[in-house]
Amino acid sequence: xxxxxxxHVLSALVQNVPGVLAHISGMLASRGxxxxxxxxxxxxxxxxxxxxxxxxxxxxxxxxxxxxxxxxVTVVRVIxxxxxxxxxxxxxxxxxxxxxxxxxxxxRELVDIFRGRIVDVGxxxxxxEISGRENKVQAFxxxxxxxxxxELVRTGRVAMVRSDSDVSIADEAAKAAG
Length: 178
Hints:
Catalyzes the conversion of 2 pyruvate molecules into acetolactate in the first common step of the biosynthetic pathway of the branched-amino acids such as leucine, isoleucine, and valine. The chain is an alpha+beta fold. It is 31% helix and 39% strand.
């Protein structure tokens, strides 16, 4: 019986060298895999970067993406984070129309409810920062949309296996490298 289509969060530890992102994203695109979300950044080891991907598909798609990533020389280790107990976050910055008065106060209240921060105040708009799970970020966007979003940017998803997990990704990467 085929497994249902689901969202998979993958973490790839890669060598921190020029062209890795282009190589990996090009390889995935050329094989018809769609990346729902992608975030890349340095790790605690400056020679390595962590790429967090979100791909949608069944277990066969997940296995194919994993196999293709593991073939790339600059990829040190690939982990299916979503198969473990993990924490994930998105970051959102948005500008919303907020003239002085009651509408601005309503928006400030929404920001507080969603545990966000106002990071810039203009005469007619506010810039807001929200971080959290994807559904929280999306819910905030829907709540402020009626006020008039003038600009919006989101990061890709970042994720980390919880510390109480049997084996951390860092432990696995150390084994792979050693």
